[in-house]
Amino acid sequence: MEHNVLLDAFVYLAATIIAVPVAKRLGFGSVLGYLLAGILIGPFVLNFVGNQSDVMHVAEFGVVMMLFLIGLELNPKLLYRMRLPIMGYGGAQVGLTLLMFMALGLGFGMDWREALSLGMILALSSTAIVLQSLQEKGQLKTIVGRKIFAVLLFQDIAVIPMLAILPLLSTQSGELSNSTSGISQAIQVTAVIAGIVVGGHYVLRHLFRFVAKTGSRELFVASALAVVVGVSLAMTWAGLSPALGAFLAGLVLADCEYRHEIESDIEPFKGLLLGLFFISIGAGINFDLLWFQPVLIAACVCILMLGKLLILYVVGLIFGFSKRHNSYFSVTLAQGGEFAFVLAGAALSYQVIDLALLQLLVLVVTLSMLLTPIALIVYDKFLAPRFTSDIKREADHIDESNPVIIAGFGRFGQIVGRLLHGYDIGTTILEHDASQIETLRKFNYTVFYGEATRLDLLISAGAEDAKLLVVALDDPESTLQVVSLAKRHFPNLQIIARAIDRKHARQLEAAGIDYCIRETFESSVALGVKALELLGYRANQAFRAGQVFKRYDQGLLSESVGQNDEERQRVSRSMDARNWLNALLQDDDLTARVEKEDHAFETEMPVKETGRSARSLLAGHKHNKTSR
Amino acid sequence: MKRILLILAHPALQKSTANASLLKAAQGLDNVTVHDLYQVYPDSFIDVAREQALLQDHDIIVFQYPFYWYSCPAIVHEWTDLVLEYGFAYGENATALQGKDWLCSVSCGGSFSSYNIDGYNEYPLIQFFLPFRQTAKICGMRFLPPFVLDGIHKRASKDRLQRKSQLYKQLLIGLSEGSYPEAEIHEATFLNQLEEHHIPWDKHARGGHGA
């Protein structure tokens, strides 16, 4: 088959379009989907694609961009606070794993240099696969997600000395020249890192500001890409990991005002390239080796993954992780990573290892990467529920039934909870973000870990005896699910909820909720009222305008519940609403009356009811004439 | 010099002329603190401790408001309900307000002449201040003769408002300086009399004044 760039591009894209949705539908993450797509188009199944190494070269940029984006999202203060986890967990994991595989290599009669490089190659995990999976599951910001991230970050940093050591292990002559270049390399490294930090801080943000002024979106995208590519080139020149450089650059730009634009511009490139990266790994798997030595390969994969799992678990024990965290932590990181390919390639070129070992390592590491999403699925299905059931049993022991259950304890639920807490009203909290839970427990809240959409969790939270369920989740779909679930199973439970927007509020009211409020409604009205005040309106006039608006707007909303949602009808209604509102605000009852006659009101004053008063509008917005 | 707390209550001051004019005259006087209830508490959620502290810092408490429904705007009632607490304003050992002066300063649409048995409002104007007078008494305060700017519905010429506001200013200064003899204050039905010596409304107004 003849290969050209466009055809290759089409094959990759088409494979992605087919494999990823299927993988997602089956409950595997997109990572596994990409890997499968790669296997599918690779030389061993359909043989659609040719030379992998070029593609791989481009695809590695996906990892670089991912690190750049993570840097952008990470606040340097947080990173500084994480310095102990990074050094502690990461250092322990890399050190112990390295020693274990090195010992293993020595045990199999390897030369110490070979064994050391084996240890280095296998000590690292796959940043790409792990972060992508965490992100998809929304676990990047949880406690355990941060622990995992700390380890990955340490590994990314550890690649630098590893790459620096490999040439020294070379069995060839010429070590002398290496040691002199060591000094110049140190200078290079310092220069590049200083360049990124200082340049990012003083030059790049001005560059983005300048480019943003031109108003050209393409130019902005181009600059963002140029920054990432440029940083990678500089890092490569200094012999450092481009991913680490990109991470640094991202970190420097994290407080830049164009952060979000940069983020959204790079995001699609990252997505596509990272996909490409996984596909290339899939396509690059050497199935010949697997075919001829299945037992050896299987044994190697088992040793790799179980060995890493063991070390990770020990690290978790040393640092006192909870059982649940530790098992997730260990399962997630127990694979070889993409840096293994880079390191193995370097080791081969310095003749520290031979080609046979390289091929074996690449295959084993690839398979371990392929198995990680599967391992995570197994973990989610079989191991994770055991930990939640632990929590459930715990709750039964507590045996207290609180009158209020709050589902979701983020920014919204917290305020509700604190208000109730102030009156010593017992609340049970359902929260799916593990990072909140430990803090809450310290303050004697009863907290259940998990999704409120699960009936068993609601039951164990005491929904059968509770008086009130407050649904304060940030996901509109889950909110609706919880409401309908609770309506069905706990008819005596009163339910109030946080609605995201008008549409959501309508859906909730239609679902028979007792009360809901749009999450930004009160606060935006309050801000509007403040705006009126600052523009010179009297405080109570502005306040009343806000009240009128709220009552009116709520009225419109509940009127529209159950209405046929035909678009045209709604549009005409909202047009009508605008005029109405106008009349309403101008006519605000008390203000208007005093306005017109400009007097204290008392009996001698003829009260002219010119036009419709606000009250009649409010009471009669079904077009009846009242209060004349 | 006595310190005056001017508690203003007008729900639509932005459109007011009478009250606004009175306010303008009082504003900026030494010893006068203006406290605009509808501005400070747009939601009528009154900070009781703050109000009580204000009361304790002043000697003469002036309530200035339009004469709504023969009484006061709602926030004044809310204010009295909350701020004049048992133990603070009245009751055992409640001495916080002892000896302070209470002055109602109102603007009303009807003229004095409409407040008599033959008039539209049937009762003498002073009678409508009875609840305030009694409230002040229970709090151990002296109820000063009210200041009234009447007839603003029909006679709201700029000139008249100007004169009345000037009068108001004089009265506040006089009260603050203590320049009116006890007997004269006791004798007057309305505060206006202390400065205005020709009192066209006197006949009707005094008719219903029992004191």
From TrEMBL, chain A:
GO annotation terms (biological process): potassium ion transport; proton transmembrane transport
Taxonomic superkingdom: Bacteria
Subcellular location: Endomembrane system
Keyword Membrane: yes
InterPro entries assigned to the protein according to its UniProt record, in alphabetical order: Cation/H_exchanger_TM, K/H_exchanger, Na+/solute_symporter_sf, NAD(P)-bd_dom_sf, RCK_N
GO cellular component: endomembrane system; plasma membrane
Originating organism: Alginatibacterium sediminis
Chloroplast keyword on record: no
Protein name: Potassium transporter
Family: Belongs to the monovalent cation:proton antiporter 2 (CPA2) transporter (TC 2.A.37) family.
From TrEMBL, chain B:
Superkingdom, natural source: Bacteria
Signal peptide residues on this chain, from the entry's feature table: 1-20
Domain Flavodoxin-like fold: 2-170
InterPro entries per the UniProt record, alphabetical: Flavodoxin_fold, Flavoprotein-like_sf, KefG/KefF
The entry's keywords: Oxidoreductase, Signal
GO molecular function, one term: FMN binding
Record protein name field: NAD(P)H oxidoreductase
